[in-house]
Amino acid sequence: MAVRHVAVDPEGCSSLDEGDAEYIKDVWNAWELQVVAKEGLETCRNARKTVAILDQQDVAVDVGTEMELVLDKGSDVVVTAVVQKGWVKPGCIALGEDLRHSLHLVHHMNSRWVRYCPKPAELPLDLLKLELEVRRIKTSGKNNKISEVDGVELAASLQEELQGIIVAVGQVVLLPYQGVMLAAQVMGTSNLSEEEKEAALFFHCYRGRVTTNTFISVSVPDNIDAGIILHNCTKAPETTPARGEVDVYTNDGEWFPVKKQILRPCISFTTHVRKAAGARISVHVDVPCLIFDKVLIFLELQAQNKEREYEVDIGALESLLTAAEVLNNCALRDFCLDRLGDFSSRMRLYCWEEVIQNNSKGGVWIAIDGMVLDVKRWLPEHPGGQRIIPEQAKNVDSTTFFEVYHASRESFLYLKHFYIGEVQEDDLCLIPRSTLPSEEFLVQLREYTDFRISNKPAVETFKSF
């Protein structure tokens, strides 16, 4: 077993949400532990089934101490581990079959653990509701006759077994019950009341702690043989349709349920926002689904006063501006106009010597059909690697290279990101070129590059050679 410090710079926590810095500082130690099957250890036979076992030598705390751990990466499941002396070998963690299944770990597998510290977004941690789907584990050579189970009694047994344990959506819990083995999978969790959900700007609960106040509902899977018949099912009280939400239908038939608080900055929604206070309503907007999805991201950031963090593809700005006018959202309109203005201000005509001089100083400007593209910042993302463009495409006409290596027209959509202007007309003849692109390719290229500052195509230069 080895205890290591996680490579986290506390000073770097300033960029995290409030409270996340403390979360990072609390998760300093990581334990490298080998997984062992808990059911195979005689010492763990009487241990609580839903907890893991650690050796005192590894963690240097009192015997009987409970620690909440999570895998360093890759799982939402929180493990409650009890510290014992001599129950497991040092450097090991004993996990039951259900925990190994939920964590995607196997016997003798090495794993890396850190302490679990709930982030502010997870609070309150205590669950008000827990939804479980139950089925019977069939075993070979035994009586697999369908069992009849009382839902209320089963929910009470699960509540007792899970008391104080943090569970996550998707996690599976095994429960011996009336002579059979049941598997209960977590299908839903909630830590807020219905009224609190309506008041909350955002709600996303995917794990929490089971308490005596947690209402547990149990059901069986639909359309498969669960191996049990569930009588007297426990169900959460029926909830009325959410108020304070507006169903926004786009002009291509899609719809989005949106909190009225998020829509408030859109003046066009004023009447609908007021009506949503008493009931759930719907509204149609003349905006396509893909653009409204981008609008929603902006509105959610706006509701948190984080508009400056909004990032969007340059090619979507004009459509977003149109949507801003339709929705009458001044902040989104100003954002689009500012970005479009910044884009326009960067565009100008270049003489060919300027392109060569920039490249000689470490820049990566390339010429495609007379366009000047600054691709240096994109090189680490280039599917063909960082070297091929600087080695083959600088200081020459790269139009044919682009045609040969970028058969997908999706590549055209990226050009506007890198476009900074045009090679001035008189210098087009100075650009070295070995072969000419096809006329068909040039037609398609220009269909995707209507943002160019000059409407006069460079094809005339190609024809003169």
Automatic annotation (TrEMBL):
The lineage of its organism: Eukaryota, Viridiplantae, Chlorophyta, Picocystophyceae, Picocystales. Gene3D superfamilies: Cytochrome b5-like heme/steroid binding domain. Pfam families: Cyt-b5. The keyword Metal-binding applies. Keywords: Heme, Iron, Metal-binding. GO terms for molecular function: heme binding; metal ion binding. This is Cytochrome b5 heme-binding domain-containing protein. GO terms for cellular component: membrane. Residues 347-424 form the Cytochrome b5 heme-binding domain. Belongs to the cytochrome b5 family.
